[in-house]
Amino acid sequence: MTKLGSKIKIYKGRKAPNVFEKRQPGAFRYIQIDDLRPDAEIKYAIDPDGVKASANDVLIAWDGANAGTVGFDLDGYIGSTIAILRPVGKDIFAPYLGYFLKSKFDYLQKNCTGATIPHISRRSIDELEIPLFPLTEQKRIAAILDKADRIRRLRRFALGMSDGYLQSVFLEMFGDPVTNPMGWEKQKISKLSSVKTGGTPSRKELEFYNGSIPWVKTTEVVGSIILQTEERITEQGLKASNCDVFPIGTILIAMYGQGLTRGRTAKLGIPATTNQACAAILPTDHVNMDYFWAYLKLSYKQLRDLGRGGNQPNLNLSMVKDFEVLLPLKELQLAYARIIRHYERLQSQQHESLRQAEHLFQSLLARAFEGEL
Q1: Which of 34, 38, 193, 297 has a CA that sits 20 to 30 A from residue 219's CA?
Q2: Does residue 178 lie within any of the structural domains?
Q3: Terminal Cα-to-Cα distance of the chain (whole angstroms)
């Protein structure tokens, strides 16, 4: 075992002065926290003084609620919340190091510093002990984890593709939410449902985490039904953060940060609480929640644009409450809900496949660095 601090150099990123949605002459990819996850919306930047990562580096989210999130095989400028972990010498294979750090996510988060905004502790990185198998063995382990990771990403992709079918049915039944060609009545969200936000228990209090209550972060609000979460909090953590446990069917909207550019909405398939970066729209008798969810997913661009603000678009609770929703006949809403129910029965098999793929990946991840693969 070798302490990681002796094997890497760390370089913090910086905020790029000019960011573009399309490639420009002299621009390179601009990597932020969302880009450490698959299927990110690629952005570009021009920054002669920028910190540039290569495909042989490992990147880690250094600041914020998602501190500890890891990515690799990425090339471009890194933003101010990202750091490069660059191997020194030739005895560490970057993907092997990347998967090792993924296996230490909970450790890194628990050791974050910062009262309001978590920051990765440099000491926690330096003191990590990494097993340095021969390079051939590191590559073999990384290849196995690559395959398992690819399987779970394919399962996620399949579920994402299924959303397109329901959107097509929605447009045929109700028309475009933006142009409202069928002339449906409009109503503000606040008139249809209660809207609340969640909370984040202090990371310094270990007893607030690893409990039984699912806790949803903005990175998990990605246009699908949330059936499981990465983290769970305790009853003590729930009370300390002024969270509420929201019921099945609650609609979540990500309100802060770059996630807004992807149109983040999701529906709870489990009773859960959320962090303060999500708006929770509770189930109501005034509108069918299946219709409501589909409507917000299709018209989210209009809601998102209300929160545009430089490189960090933000919504607030008033913007969400004042957003108007089209109200078709209740019979049509219920008919659409029946279509969803039938389709979700077919999807349940895909969800189970995803659960198994996630379990396989996490199991292999746990075993990989104990020499058990």
Answers
A1: 193
A2: no
A3: 17
- Distance, in Å, from the CA atom of 345 to the CA atom of 225, rounded to the nearest integer, reads 13
The DSSP string of 275-300 is: -TTEEEE---SSS-HHHHHHHHHHHH
**Same domain, yes or no: 47 and 90:** yes
DSSP code of 4? G
Strand partners, 144: none
Backbone angle region of 232, left / alpha / beta, with phi > 0 → left and psi within -120 to 50 → alpha: beta
- Determine contact, residues 357/145, Cβ cutoff 8 Å: no
Q: Is the pLDDT at 306 greater than 80, yes or no?
A: no
**Is the same domain home to 298 and 288?**
yes
Q: Are 285 and 194 in contact (CB under 8 A)?
A: no
For residues 53-62, average pLDDT: 92
Q: What is the pLDDT of residues 180-199, one digit of tens each?
A: 999 999 999 999 999 998 88
How far apart CA 3 and CA 124 sit, in angstroms, is 10
Question: Does the pLDDT at position 263 exceed 70?
Answer: no
Q: Which residues pair with 215 in a beta bridge?
A: 231, 273
Please state the domain count of the chain: 3
Q: Which two tokens stand for residue 365?
A: 């991840």
Q: Which stretch of DSSP H or E encloses residue 101?
A: helix 94-103
At 242, the amino acid letter reads: N
Q: Is there a single domain that holds both residue 348 and residue 275? A: no
Mean pLDDT score across all residues of the chain: 86
pLDDT in tens, 18-56: 888 888 888 899 998 888 877 678 899 998 889 999 989
> Which of 222, 279, 218 is closest to 246 using CA atoms?
279
Beta bridge partners of 6: none
Please check whether residues 323 and 232 belong to one and the same domain: yes
Q: Are 313 and 260 in contact (CB under 8 A)?
A: yes
Tens digit of each residue's pLDDT (9 = 90 or more) over 140-195 = 999 999 999 989 888 877 777 766 788 889 899 999 888 899 999 999 999 999 99
Within a domain: 165: no
Query: What 3-state DSSP class applies to 86?
Result: strand
162 Cβ contact list (under 8 Å, min separation 6): 343, 347, 350
Beta strands 195-197 and 278-281: pairing type? antiparallel
- Joined together, the tokens standing for residue 181 give 């060609």
Q: What is the DSSP letter of 312?
A: S
